[in-house]
Amino acid sequence: MIHNDIHTKINKKSHILKFIVCKSLIDLDNILNSQNLIQQLNNLLQNSFPLQLPMSSSFVENMKLMVKKKHIDPNNVITILAIIPTHTTHTTHTTRTTHSTLSVKSIVGCVQIVIQSNTYTIINLCRIKGDRFRGIGKYLLKYSINHIRKISNVKIIYLSVSANNTKLQEYYQKLGWVKTHEYDFSSDTEPAFKMMYIL
Ligand SMILES: CC(C)(COP(=O)(O)OP(=O)(O)OC[C@H]1O[C@@H](n2cnc3c(N)ncnc32)[C@H](O)[C@@H]1OP(=O)(O)O)[C@@H](O)C(=O)NCCC(=O)NCCS
To answer: Which of 115, 125, 145, 176 is surrounded by the fewest CB atoms within 10 Å?
Structure first.
């Protein structure tokens, strides 16, 4: 189920990160269930977006509600999880070969890409709190942009950012995003600007 992975060194602590790409919410459901990760992802989103508290204990059910409200097809939501993995190795004595199985240790970040008639929008970018994990959001954004490059030929990617949060707008600008001054009226919590990234 691991579709893609990248080894990335992050800051001083040098975490080895891997990225799991879930091509739909059904794919995400399978991965979360098989690895017992629903609670971890729920916690990450609850802590990062307190205004969007999920209503059910199932992350995928919450996502389905959210995307339904936003008129988004759940099959057109790609989720990318940043994880810190562990490898368990074991040796088969008869053949003397060593097998390495990847098992997920913890989810440290998440981002989603919504595809609507050839428009690609990034939502729910977040990472777990703590200085040790600084930079993970940046790598998730980079990974998403590269993924969109691979699967489409679009020239612009969008995201929305709170119109009042200039610090967050500056963060995106430093990473090459451009503020459009166009209000995103689909944002239901607060006024938000659309930002775009030119590929
Ligand atoms: C946005 C986010 C994923 C960026 O992760 P990252 O690439 O690892 O970067 P950092 O968290 O280290 O933040 C980088 C800078 O942006 C600022 N910043 C990040 N998120 C911010 C926010 N929500 N509000 C204000 N400033 C923010 C940080 O203060 C930091 O500035 P500094 O370097 O001057 O201290 C992460 O900060 C996060 O999960 N934030 C909460 C959720 C969120 O707001 N997501 C954005 C949705 S549009």
So the answer is: 176
Alpha carbons 194 and 199: distance in angstroms, whole number: 16
Q: What is the pLDDT of residues 59-117, one digit of tens each?
A: 677 666 566 556 678 889 999 999 998 765 555 565 566 555 666 789 999 999 999 88
Which two structure tokens, joined as six digits, stand for 195? Answer: 């930002």
Please give the model's pTM, rounded to 2 decimal places. Answer: 0.87
HSE on the CB side for 114, CA within 13 Å?
19
Closest ligand 1 atom, CA of 49?
42
- DSSP per-residue letters across 152-184: ---SEEEEEEETT-HHHHHHHHHTT-EEEEEE-
- What is the pairing mode between strands 9-10 and 192-198? unpaired
